[in-house]
Design brief:
Low-confidence stretches of chain B: none
Oligomer: heterodimer
Shape of chain B: elongated
Largest interface: A-B, 37 and 26 residues
Number of helices of chain A: 6
Radius of gyration of chain A: 17 Å
Number of domains of chain B: 2
Number of helices of chain B: 12
Strand content of chain A: 25-35%
Strand content of chain B: 15-25%
Shape of chain A: globular
Helix content of chain B: 40-55%
Distance between the termini of chain B: 27 Å
Largest sheet of chain B: 6 strands, mixed, barrel
Order of helices and strands of chain A: EEEHEEHEHHHEHEEE
Order of helices and strands of chain B: HHHEHEEEHEEEHEHEHHHHH
Number of strands of chain B: 9
Mean pLDDT of chain B: 88
Chain lengths: ~230, ~375
């Protein structure tokens, strides 16, 4: 499976040693097409987060290969993988992981700074993004002054800073109520449709099924099912 | 950099604890350093106060306070060595002092010729602005309680000889636990029952056209029964004696070294703990693609801000403390370079501790960022 845009080929990952050894992924091969939203689901311990870590260049498989933007990344150094994360990948986390001491605007501006420290007008670009997400009245609020839904929108704005082609989301709606969760689903779907971004969402939330182009179910570190939505 | 500053401003409680730790460390290092510096300075103060080039002492004298009398011919023979321009005499011995109200105590009596040096406390120094009788006796203001004179001049007795205490001076306080009294050479030999022209130290001023080492060598050859030392050599010898060979000096040296090490450990531990508190944020930065240098810069900036603020507060606290301590320990002394010499390693330890702790963030465990 050469030249995958984003995916893994024959990837296996184990954690721990001897009796505590756990096989998180076993010979998994998956490809994520450019401009699609893929939902990865499955029970706890099925290997969803391990898969996301590999796709995000945070983890190298013990066996197999990982491709990001057509490049095999598992042989690269940590510094080279950092550059790939910086230029091509962004994350959205269940726990938001906003910088608690920075305002919403500064959190997003920091996203731009990480992508390109020399880029001018970071504040203006951050302001544009937050306005797009309906957070114009929350610019100077710190994370602890925002609702969970607002926090996640700020986190997505930060993730989109610098226009990365790949967005990896780990349980992005798990901490949100129904309306806020639906809002996040719509935002990420729009990023796929309008910006051509490739989004991989790991979630137990069934709401995602109607927003995803494909649903992958993992179980015990293996791909149990792949369902494409036509 | 904004993240570093905002983190500090946001968590004021943690920042206060960090700054307090650094302040305490800097306070401890500077205070202990001042005790050591003051002790070293006091150990050679009278030697340093002379502006002569060479000191001749009896063989084996370890410190100014423990000199023994030299034969009169030593001065005459030294004066005949090529390159020696001028000689002067200093005598020092313990004497019995009787206060105006009849109380007796031991004092260290120092007498010197007027040409020993401008800073050397002698009553008949040629540059002295306030003219006194050559027989005047001086004492340091810090010894006032022990000298027990109500008003100046005061008639007292030294070794049963009448003496006149005429002035207070500053900077030559008790170092041995007994007060120093200063007078002219002529007066001192009378009080101490020395023979005419007898001295404990012969001090030489040399001609700059002759190399000092050459004059010193000639003197050693001509006077093999005495020690011939440059002023700096004798001062060093005296400092080493008091610091290394006496219990008090050893205790102060040990306390200063321990204070320095404890200070560095406190700084390191404080900054390390502070950095570890923010580990999750550094892990997030790393996951978002921030290069190691970017993360390290933020951690370092945070540590240095804490270190700098803590150092300034520590210095602000230690300066008045040292000034207050002078009333109890007259010889404590903080040279101008000491605060800088203590702050620099403190900041270096801040940086080092933050770099050590940030390694955890830079080698972030995969998946950590995905945990709720």
């Amino acid at each position: 499976m050469p030249n995958l845009f984003l995916g893994v080929e024959g990837a296996s990952v184990t954690f721990g040693q001897q009796d505590a050894r756990v096989c998180a992924l076993r010979d998994v091969s998956l490809s994520f097409e450019k401009g699609t939203l893929s939902l990865v689901t499955g029970p706890s311990g099925s290997g969803k987060t391990t898969l996301l870590s590999m796709l995000g260049c945070l983890l190298s498989p013990d066996e197999g290969s990982v491709f990001v933007d057509g490049v095999a990344v598992n042989g690269l150094s940590e510094a080279e993988r950092t550059v790939i994360r910086q230029k091509k990948i962004s994350f959205v986390f269940q726990a938001f992981r906003l910088f608690h001491s920075l305002s919403a605007l500064d959190n997003v501006a920091l996203g731009f700074e990480i992508r390109d420290p020399a880029a001018p007008g970071r504040k203006e670009l951050a302001l544009d993004l937050l306005l797009q997400f309906g957070l114009g009245d929350k610019l100077q609020q710190e994370p602890n002054e925002l609702s969970p839904g607002e926090k996640q929108r700020v986190a997505i704005a930060r993730a989109l800073a610098g226009n990365p082609p790949i967005l990896l989301a780990d349980e992005p709606t798990a901490s949100l109520d129904a309306e806020a969760g639906r809002n996040i689903c719509q935002i990420l779907r729009r990023e796929v449709d309008e910006q051509g971004r490739t989004v991989v969402v790991v979630s137990h939330d069934p709401r995602w099924e109607k927003f995803a182009d494909r649903t992958i179910t993992l179980c015990d570190g293996r791909v149990e099912e792949e369902v494409a939505v036509l | 950099m904004k993240l570093a500053l905002q983190n500090i401003l946001h968590d004021r409680g943690r920042f206060s604890v960090t700054v307090l730790g650094v302040s305490f460390a800097v306070f401890l290092m500077v205070f202990q350093g001042s005790l050591l510096a003051g002790f070293l300075q006091a150990a050679s103060r009278l030697i340093d106060a002379s502006d002569t080039d060479i000191w001749i002492t009896a063989r084996g004298v370890q410190a100014f306070e423990f000199g023994t009398a030299l034969e009169s011919r030593v001065r005459e023979m030294a004066a005949g060595v090529p390159g020696v321009m001028q000689t002067s005499r200093v005598c020092m011995a313990f004497a019995v002092y009787r206060t105006p109200i009849g109380k007796q105590q031991v004092v260290a009596l120092v007498g010197a010729d007027p040409n020993v040096g401008k800073r050397f406390p002698v009553p008949d120094a040629p540059e002295s602005a306030e003219k006194m009788s050559p027989d005047a006796v001086l004492y340091d203001v810090s010894d006032r309680k022990q000298i027990e004179v109500a008003a100046l001049p005061a008639e007292v007795e030294i070794n049963r000889h009448r003496a006149s205490i005429e002035r207070e001076i500053q900077g030559y306080g008790a170092f041995l636990g007994v007060p120093f009294l200063f007078t002219s050479y002529r007066n001192a030999i009378r009080y101490l029952d020395f023979r005419s022209d007898q001295a404990v130290y012969i001090l030489l001023r040399t001609d700059r056209r002759y190399p000092l080492s050459q004059i010193q060598q000639s003197l050693k050859q001509k006077l093999p029964e005495v020690d011939v030392l440059t002023r700096d050599e004798f001062a060093h010898k005296s400092r080493m004696y008091w610091t290394i060979k006496t219990g008090a000096g050893g205790a102060i040296l040990t306390a200063a070294v321990l204070g320095f090490l404890i200070g560095l450990v406190v700084v390191s531990q404080t900054i390390y703990a502070n950095t570890m508190e923010n580990l999750e944020e550094y892990a997030t930065l790393k996951a978002l693609g921030a290069p190691q240098a970017f993360v390290a810069r933020i951690v370092l900036a945070q540590a240095l801000i804490c270190g700098a603020v803590g150092s300034v507060l520590g210095l602000l606290a230690v300066v008045p403390s040292i000034n207050y301590a002078k009333s109890l320990i007259p010889w404590i002394h903080a040279p101008w370079w000491l605060p800088a010499a203590m702050v620099v390693p403190s900041l270096a330890m801040c940086s080092l501790a933050s770099i050590v702790s940030v390694r955890s963030a830079l080698t972030v465990e995969p998946g950590r960022v995905f945990r709720a």
